[in-house]
Automatic annotation (TrEMBL):
InterPro entries: ACMSD, Amidohydro-rel, Metal_Hydrolase. Transmembrane segments: none annotated. Keywords: Lyase. This is Amidohydrolase. SUPFAM superfamilies: Metallo-dependent hydrolases. It comes from the Bacteria.
Length: 301
């Protein structure tokens, strides 16, 4: 089974007018972005994603939602409506989709909304601290407690983001206290800290067994420097083992850098690619990264 633990229905550029305006002016994250018009036909988008998944051989896609409303102004849909789209889609088509609930923990009623989403079938929580809060803020703690109680993972963005989002709290160091205080809650370090904070993310995972690494946005590193990409895979293997890695794409936002099928194929070919650079990756480790570990974190058979 291949599980994409980090997928979105729509990119941030499609969801927020403020970000579309930035994209229209030039580079975002070093990549030319298109200022797409809003897309609100979930049926058409779901069909596009299924076709993309079929081409790549992906079995299940986890739909993650970043809540940027308190930083950017509310999106084209309310955060409640966007979450409902994901949970409804996952309930209608559980063979393809898994819903994570995305919320800014500072919103009134965030815990109750998360509980309702879990009751509706959500299998995880997504936090995006670039909206201006720390994952170690006490306001997050009831969410972590509920995630641990219900046995679902908490996926947290790490790594810098373009303005008007802020990177202050996107360092993985802000997950250290939650991981220590909620040992029965699993935390997924999305993007594994990116380039700026990867060594820190890995070192924290060495000391906190409930921290897992997700490698989306590493597509650019692979294209720029395959040897360095493989070297980091080797560091993870020797540091915590590749069984602590989950596959994610961050599509559609990163699709222009590398399409989903090419990113999946990279992981499938890791034993061969890594060998060229003196690193051993076994087929069993590939299976763990591509789906076995994620299935275990979410309690899937």
């Amino acid at each position: 089974m291949i599980i994409d633990l980090h997928r979105h229905l729509w990119s941030i550029f499609e969801r927020y007018a403020a970000v579309r305006e930035i994209a229209a002016r030039g580079l975002v994250g070093g990549v030319h972005q298109h200022a797409e018009a809003p897309v609100q036909d979930v049926g058409s988008r779901a069909a596009e994603i299924r076709a993309e998944m079929d081409k790549a051989g992906v079995d299940r896609s986890c739909l993650l939602l970043g809540d940027y409303g308190l930083r950017l102004g509310e999106g084209d849909l309310s955060i409640e409506a966007e979450n409902r789209l994901a949970t409804d889609l996952a309930r209608e088509d559980p063979e393809h989709f898994i819903a994570f609930f995305g919320i800014d923990p500072r919103r009134p009623g965030a815990v109750e909304l998360f509980r309702d989403a879990l009751d509706a079938g959500a299998r995880g929580l997504k936090l995006h601290p670039c909206s201006g809060y720390s994952p170690s803020d006490p306001v997050c703690r009831p969410l972590y407690a509920l995630a641990g109680e219900r046995g679902v993972p908490v996926a947290v963005h790490t790594g810098p983001m373009a303005a008007p989002l802020v990177s202050t709290y996107a360092s993985p160091i802000h997950l250290d206290e939650p991981a220590a205080d909620f040992p029965d809650t699993t935390f997924v370090i999305l993007h594994a800290g990116q380039r700026a904070w990867f060594p820190l993310a890995l070192d924290m995972a060495r000391w906190k067994p409930n921290l897992y690494l997700e490698l989306s946005l590493w597509q650019g590193l692979l294209l720029e420097d395959e040897a360095r990409f493989v070297g980091r895979i080797g560091e993870i293997k020797s540091g915590v083992g590749l069984g602590r890695v989950v596959f994610g794409s961050d599509c559609p936002g990163v699709s222009s850098v590398m399409p989903l099928h090419a990113w999946v194929e990279t992981f499938r070919r890791l034993p061969e690619i890594a060998q060229r650079h003196g690193v051993e990756v076994t087929p069993d480790e590939v299976d763990q990264m591509l789906g076995t570990t994620a299935a275990s974190l979410m309690g899937l058979s």
